[in-house]
Amino acid sequence: MRFTKSAPRGNASLVDDNIYDDVMVSKQADVSSVADEIYDDVMVSKQQDNVSSFANNSCTEDQLSKQKADLQQPGPDRKSKISPGHAVLLVLMALLVIAVFALSITVFYLTKNERCQTLKEDLESLKMIALDETCPKCEAGWERHRGSSYFFSNYTSSWTDSRRSCTDLGSDLVKIDSREEQMFLEIRVREIIKNNETFWIGLTDSKTEGSWLWTDGSPLNQSLSFWALGQPDSLGGAELDCVGMMKTEIPDEVRWYDRHCNDNLRSICEKDSKIQLCFCV
Ligand SMILES: [Ca+2]
Ligand SMILES: [Ca+2]
Which SUPFAM superfamilies is this protein grouped with (predicted)? Predict the structure, then answer.
């Protein structure tokens, strides 16, 4: 509030105007002051709000940092986000990987052991051949078929002498174990036969008449007997106790006949072809 100066009475109107102006100026000054104060209050309040907001934001960032650190650190307080189904799947996958690895190792060692065994067998065979101590020499002319090797003699001798010749070569008179073996021998006999010759085989009933045995002592299997028609015909007591195979009257047919064991005939020797692999080079 400003005080106005006094004025002469004649100029009362002018004085009133001055007073009014002073009052207005003073009022405007007061209003401005109040507005400034309000503005200052608002600014202070706003600054306080900003500080509070900044503090709040800082607190939130701190909390986020703390939560991030907690997530990075394993511990019982942090809950796992892996579901039980995923955990089971992971375990199964791990077991599968382990099983595949173990299987690969097993296959590797089995293959390795098999190769080693084969190499050892080959080495032993080479040693026996090189040393030439235990392997008897075999004659030329052995023929391999399936699991056996066969020798068709060009000389003739009795059944007993023919068998001895075979054993001297690490073999015995042939034992016919199958129809296929019979067929093979038939084909070879037809190919090498010259004058309707007969070849001794390893079958005899010299111990008991009518009881046919192979040289290894096994009895003849009647379902695998290949007698010629009407054979054997010594059941009446004749000394026909050894068996040979020869062509019959039927073209290309080769069958068995019982003969005197002292007859001089050709013969067929048989031995395991594995033995031949070792003994014959
Ligand atoms: Ca045989
Ligand atoms: Ca007989």
Answer: C-type lectin-like
Report how far ligand 1's centroid is from the alpha carbon of 76 (Å): 78
What are the sequence ranges of the domains in the chain?
Answer: 9-72, 83-134, 143-272
Å from CA of 181 to ligand 1 middle: 7
Q: Mind listing the pLDDT tens digit for each residue in 188-247?
A: 999 999 888 999 999 999 999 899 999 999 999 999 999 999 999 876 667 899 999 999
**Nearest ligand to the C-alpha atom of residue 208:** 2
Domain 143-272 has CATH 3.60.15.10: no
pLDDT at 25: 44
Ligand nearest, relative to CA of residue 206: 2
Give the ligand with the smallest distance to the CA of 173.
1
* Residue 225 to residue 17: CA distance in whole angstroms: 162
Cβ count within 10 A of residue 280:
18
User: What is the Cα–Cα distance from 164 to 170, expressed in whole angstroms?
Assistant: 10
Residues forming a β-bridge with 257: 244
Per-residue tokens: 41: 């209050």
- Three-class HEC string of 169-205: CCCEECCCCCHHHHHHHHHHHHHHCCCCCCEEEEEEC
How far does the centroid of ligand 2 lie from the alpha carbon of residue 53, in Å?
Answer: 125
